[in-house]
Design goal:
Blueprint (H helix, E strand, L loop, with lengths): L3 E5 L3 H13 L3 E5 L2 H11 L3 E5 L7 H11 L5 E5 L4 H9 L4 E4 L4 H11 L2
Parallel strand pairs: 1-2, 1-3, 3-4, 4-5
Helix pairs in contact: 2-3
Length: about 120
């Protein structure tokens, strides 16, 4: 059975690039362009891992993380940020994020993180 990964980011380029990388690695991937759609997709599909952007229009990624953790406390969520501050990192960790990745995304770091998170 293929591992399911949900990518939630308001930047179409990030969704496409990350989705392509993950599909190439053999993962089953779905994407959402905002946190509300990501939460709905999480509930329908129950992915093994979620990549979620921190800064998005409307509901931000930290609120999205909070709501996914309410639905499923064991959810594995990796936050993505182009402007992560120490405060953001601390808040995401306190909310239960598995890790935080900086943009631009590094392919090798993503693949190592995936192997570790999905074991």
């Amino acid at each position: 059975m293929s591992r399911r990964i949900l990518v939630v980011d308001d930047e179409q380029g990030i969704r496409a690039a990350l989705g392509q990388l993950l599909e190439f690695e053999g993962y089953d991937v779905r994407t959402a362009g905002n946190a509300a759609d990501g939460i709905a997709e999480y509930e329908r599909w129950r992915p093994n891992l979620v990549f979620m952007d921190v800064k998005m229009a409307g509901m931000d990624g930290l609120e999205g993380l909070r709501r996914i953790k309410q639905i499923d406390p064991s959810a594995t969520v990796v936050m993505i940020s182009g402007h992560a501050t120490i405060q953001t990192a601390v808040e995401a960790t306190q909310l239960g994020a598995y890790d935080i990745l900086e943009k631009p995304l590094d392919t090798d770091r993503i693949l190592v993180l995936l192997r570790n998170a999905l074991q």
